[in-house]
Amino acid sequence: MQTVLIIVHLIIVLALVGVVLLQRSEGGGLGMGGGSSGGGGGFMTGRGQANALTRTTAVLAALFFATSLALAILAGYSRAPTSVIDTLPLSSGPNQPSAPGEAPAGPGVLEQLQQLQGDQPAGPQVPQSR
């Protein structure tokens, strides 16, 4: 479902960019685009084209907004809520606390790492020159 919605969203984005680029600049910033009496004589000229492009832009913007919200909601549903309290072990084993504030009965993490290293010294390793 989410993949289909992402594809629809991308199609809407591309259409929205295309429609915005098709619109004539009202400010005439670069001096391009000609006036309302410009040549060419297409079937949609002047006011009709501006209204159609404006309406199309508004519809595409509303669809973009709706698909963005839908994708955000779907992303929230697919993520399971987590809590630090939920990740604590509840069973009381030899190395696990039985309550959140209680210290473990067995060796700590540092002691376990030192046991795994065996006979290597626990201090910092300094390279020696030969």
From TrEMBL:
Membrane topology designation: Multi-pass membrane protein
Keywords, in A-Z order: Cell membrane, Membrane, Protein transport, Translocation, Transmembrane, Transmembrane helix, Transport
Biased composition annotated in UniProt, kind: Polar residues: 86-98
A GO term, aspect molecular function: protein-transporting ATPase activity
Chain segments carrying region Disordered: 86-107
GO cellular component, one term: plasma membrane
Residues spanning the membrane: 6-22, 57-77
Coiled coil regions, renumbered to chain: none
InterPro entries given in the database record: SecG
Compartment(s) where it occurs, according to its Swiss-Prot or TrEMBL record: Cell membrane
Listed GO biological process terms: intracellular protein transmembrane transport; protein secretion; protein transport by the Sec complex
Family stated for the protein in its record: Belongs to the SecG family.
Function comment: Involved in protein export. Participates in an early event of protein translocation.
Protein name stated in the entry: Protein-export membrane protein SecG
Organism: Salinarimonas ramus
